[in-house]
Amino acid sequence: MEAYRDQYATLFNNGRKVVVVGISVDADTVQANWARDSEFPIVFASDVDGKVGALYGAYDEKNKMDNRSLYVIGPDGKIAYKTQPFRVLAADAYTELGDVIDKLSPPPTPSDK
């Protein structure tokens, strides 16, 4: 998650027309404290029973946790991109993600300012 935070401006065009939501089985209080202490510019959601993760094929029933899946939902409300698991240590994974975001929500041009 730190990579998302550290690359937020580049990857997500500073949140322009983009909302990033991190979902995990952790309790909401744990997530809120961690997000605040680590200064995350994204939203976190708690899925303690794994129902959301199960719907998306991201919940590992055996270990009672979500895997590192990543989904990009397009403006039409449909999944525009997914990767399971997201390769958090691979630089090209962030390049690929940035390209997807740019296609769905292009960065502002000088005429947009």
Structure description:
With 113 residues, the chain is an alpha+beta fold. The chain has one domain (2-105): Glutaredoxin, CATH 3.40.30. The protein has five helices and six strands; from the N terminus they run ααβαβαββββα. The mean pLDDT is 84.
The sequence of SSEs as H and E is HHEHEHEEEEH
* CATH T-level topology: Glutaredoxin
Work out the helicity level. 25-40%
Number of folding domains?
1
The tally of helices reads 5
What spatial form do the alpha-carbon principal axes imply?
A: globular
How many strands? 6
How would you characterize the largest beta sheet?
A: 2 strands, parallel
Q: Which blocks of ≥5 consecutive residues have pLDDT under 50?
A: none
Using only CA atoms, what is the Rg? 15 Å
Strand order of the largest sheet: 1-2
**Overall average residue pLDDT:** 84
Q: From the 3D coordinates, which CATH architecture would you assign?
A: 3-Layer(aba) Sandwich
Strand content: 15-25%
Short précis:
This protein has one domain: Glutaredoxin (3-Layer(aba) Sandwich). Helices cover 34% and strands 19% of the residues.
